[in-house]
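Entry: Putative gluconeogenesis factor
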Amino acid sequence: MHLLKWLYPGMRFKRWLCLFAVGALLTGLGLAIVFNYKYIDSIEEFLFYAVYTWTGSYDYMITAIVGIAIIVFGLIIMLLATRMVIRSLITVLVPDKSGRLVDMIYEHRKLDKGPNVTVVGGGTGLSVLLRGMKEETRNATAIVTVADDGGSSGRLREEFNIVPPGDLRNCLVALADTEPMMEKLFQYRFSGNSDLAGHSFGNLFITAMTEVTGDIEQALKESSRVLAVKGRVFPATTAKIRLSATMEDGTVVEGESQIPLVHKRIKRVHIFPHHVEPVPSSIKAIREAEVIVFGPGSLYTSIIPNLLVDNIADEIKKSKAIKIYICNVMTQPGETDDYTASMHVKALIEHGGAGIVDYVLVNNKEISAEMQEYYAQKGQYPVLVDEKAVEDLGIGLFKADIIDDSEMIHHDSMKLAQNVMKIYHTLKEN
């Protein structure tokens, strides 16, 4: 059965096997001509004699069956030989994965045909979605916010005058098709009291790569090779931007990390400088997208900042792609307190303009009373799905189980990706 996997649709193997068979046939015909068919005659006479000895007569049907068996046997030998040649090469190039060669090729071919999906956001929510999306398509692109000013990313941003690498690192690791040890290495965070304390190795690696290449896009491209990334990761802009928020009481809070700490209702967020150029590759990804996904993640500090970069929101609105917003399951203290699903969507529209989103995906799995009580102690509550209010905004609504609540309440990577693809295929068919 393992050999038959090579004949799966989409493997692009059968055509070459047939070509190999034609070549073998022509080679055999050429040898027969060179030797004047005498060896073929001998083989044919032997077969007729064997059939006569076995049946007592010349049964041409049995002879034909023997001939077909020889053909099948020859094809099996060619298939096996071709497989062993490929395995020999793979064993040298990718020794750890040579045992699952057929599955690797089939998966690669299948995912290559997946739709172009562009995901816009930042923080851990974006990486959660990407971790599942890489199992659905190799054509996933992440456009990542660069407004982070806290922690390791903030320090590197100030010291080396680069875009904060933290969210970019998380997206690269999420899309990686590499060994667990490499992922652990990129996510490793130094401890102690040295200057390295608090920095992750991945952040330092991207920073060093940016210094070496002189360009963050090139640095991410080279880092993607190291991690065997299934997709692409781009910052929304390479400009050094700072996020601020105007609260409903008129006060202004500076800094992405400071906005949730004041615990006031946000009216609008801004970036400074107000006008910055987008990364051309990000614009190209939006234009090529068949699906554009926002979130999940912090509404005002991870998703909306991308829409404030020049041309990004305009390109998304012009796009004919299916635009889906994945609504958070729980409210976020200091950012979306008491927000309903429609309020999340309304904030997107207010910052990006009408047409920025077509559909919203919300969780419909019931959250246990114990979990709700636990999160209430942290000031977090389930986001109310006010279906009619969402529809009044002209936005379609999809409900699904998209969480993992085994220990904590988190979006589930595979459930998210599968439901995004389900929405895409459903709408495409209609």
